[in-house]
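thread: overnight batch results

M.L. [08:02]
morning all. the overnight job finished for the chain we discussed friday. pasting input first so we're all looking at the same thing
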Amino acid sequence: MLGVASSPWVYLLTALLIVADAFLVIVPSETVVVALGALALSTGTPNLWMLVPVAAASATLGDSLCFAIGRRVGTGWIRNARLARAVEFARATLDRRPASVILTARYVPFARIAVNLSAGATGFAYRRFLPLSLFAGLGWALFNVFVGASFGALFPEQPLMGVVLAVLVAIGLGVLIDTVVARVSRLSRPEDERAEGREEREGTENHTDDIDR
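M.L. [08:03]
and the structure it wrote out:
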């Protein structure tokens, strides 16, 4: 990895990974940016002043492409009533508090894809989406580079140790963010949707009891 970090191609490879992460959650773009941030402080490469704008611009590009796919596909294919209500909830939430939704979703892979697709599919104006996506991408890039750089500065003589610890901390923070966002999302769901979920669970339990008897 040290050899890759010192190559001028590292910025292009990083950009491609971040854009791909807009569609494929298995792509570890956060991990790559954190690791490069750690190496930047401990070894001097890559250049932080290049890494941050490349990461921010690539994140914005990926989100915009995801938005475009949502706009292209639309919501006409939805036939499931529950899914239709979920999309409508996303549209209403984006209308009420677009900044908090888009900024928060950038840090949660699955939520990021869902929000960007929903924003495009439900007719959210791109002129409103783009500046929020730019701000979210910049914040995301600064956050991940800062986490990595912090550990790179702590272990200047052991760059790989700094990378490993920075990645572990970043993963822990990611899990924490996922948990908080999921809990807040459950609490903010409409009461009738929560009631429907409870009824479905009770129906499943009753059906299971009938089979057992």
